[in-house]
Amino acid sequence: MLSLLQDPFHLQKTEYKRLQFFEKSKKFILPEKQFLGIREDKKRKDNQVSMILKKSYSYFIPMQKTLKLFLELPGVLNKILEYQRKLSLCDEDIMCNVTHGTLWKGIEEKSNSEIILPIVMYFDDFEVLNPLGSQAGCYKIGAVYYYIATIPPTHISKLENIFLCLLFYANDRVEFGNEKIFNVLVNELKFLENEGISVNLTDGSNRKIKFSVITITGDNAGLNSILGYNESFSSTYYCRICTSSKDINRIQTLEKEDTIRLKINYTADLCSKKGLKEKCVWNGLSNFHVYDNIFCDVMHDLFEGVHRYDMALIINKLIEKKYFTSDILNSRMKYFTYNNNEKNVAPGFSPEQLLKNIIVISAYEMLCLVRNFRFIIGDCVPKDDTTWHFYLLIYEITEILTSHSLRKTSLEYLQILVEEHHSLYLDLSGSNLKPKYHFLTHYVRIILKLGPLMTLSCLRPEGKHQELKNESKITKCRKNIPRTLSLKNQLKQCYRFMSLKGLEDKINFGKMKNIDLNNYKQCNHTLSLENFKSTSFYEINSCKYEKHTVILLDYNNDSPIFCELIDILIHHIDFSNIYFLCSIWYSEIFNNHYKAYKIKKSNTTKLFSKRIFENDAPGIIYRVSENEFYASIN
Fold this sequence. Notes:
- The chain is of the alpha+beta class.
- It is built from 21 helices and 19 strands.
- The strands form four sheets. A seven-stranded mixed beta sheet has the order 1-2-6-5-4-8-7, with helices on both faces. Strands 11, 14, 15, 16, 17, 18 and 19 form a seven-stranded antiparallel beta sheet that branches. The chain has a three-stranded antiparallel beta sheet with strand order 10-12-13, with no helix packed on it.
- Helix 12 packs parallel to helix 15 and helix 12 packs antiparallel against helix 16.
């Protein structure tokens, strides 16, 4: 026994032996090398550089194997199917998932009662070196990820549930074309559509599961490049959804029904090159067509597009009117009390930055700025100001588009907001509408097809890039980076599959302290608190509850009732048994200037189980003046 403990890993001493060990465990999926073609390269020998012909490869991770191992993790398939069942029972007017869109309903009608799970694909390129360096582009990598769209909301954004399936050099896609790069992936998806996989459950039974691609996500340039569209947004027909020319799009504030791209016109548009440069390789899937399965991304179009121009215009106009200075704005932004779940706070802006008429900050920082700008500086602006009205328009558009649950009846209002916003932008800016403004006119159509677009946002898949970038930074060798990164990704995934880690909640909380039971007598509760302790915060799946957090509790005659957390109680054995001690705040009136409810604190204190707040995002109480408080519905 002692001799074994002296060298317990003697059978895995080399990398080759370790990979063999993991392969035998059947939890490690080795990336498959896919031949693409032959390209020119250079080779140095005897102090002479010569041209050679070199084979190019992509690295494909079979989706069948990944999905089978993932769905066989304890409880994973049951949780997905249960959530999908709950979605089917939602009110007809409610949309909170792709399964509520017309595209998925069409797939279900053809399913013959089979179990089908919706797959969302994501494509983008990323740099493993400095994108501004001398070798920018040389090591640019193309990546394709995917995830199951009906993973419960508390788990779907976790990077471990977004799977890698293809890595290649971006230059190889340009050299050999989309069909050569993506053919292996399309064939795999055809198999998942038509044949499916057999999933063995822990109770000994097995289920036949099929999959269908509901949409392909990514930024506008990336989608145009892999879907066969013109890649230049200065081309005459740059839009993937309609055939309006760029000259019309510059002033168009509303979608024109007669210009929408239709499947029956695809061949004619391809022949006439009406925004298309090649046949879409993805059209080979039975439930996918590039004209039907349309997509636009909230992050790229709004946070990194429209917001950048709008907020620069709004701030400049308000400063011109002498409502405040850039120094006052920067000071207020610096000392503003932000929601604790807003981890990326916008920095201040110099006058030189604002003169460029565009604010370039990260997507999360921009979203934070747009949501909080009304309270940061709103008290300095008159109520009837046109520029402020323009800000409130983009704020309302943002709130609707970032919602994870929408009513179909709200989409008509969204269309009105977009039209008014675009018209006012043309008046205030004196410039034309940019392409990302035009894409907003199609958002109602896309939402009806796919459900709330925030649930399909590229924010999290782009976060997956960071994992691969971090791996590339600690890999000094730049030879065959796609193989290196795909192999490291699979080893990480193998660890998860071997440890049988399914869809588990990630829970964190502060230091627990004993409580004084006398402090809770006024709550009129029947709960025994002997086994509970107090803590400063409770965090579950990156959603953080802290003291003074405010949550929507209920409605009274359409007026919301809020509760402010005074204390957080955790059972010292069962950490999922959580109670919140709350002060009750009643809304007095809805203030249109702040787009928030003016609230007043009552003398009532109550104890609530955390379970009643499962679907409510925590916020904060905004203090505008000494006795003026506001809260928003998140």
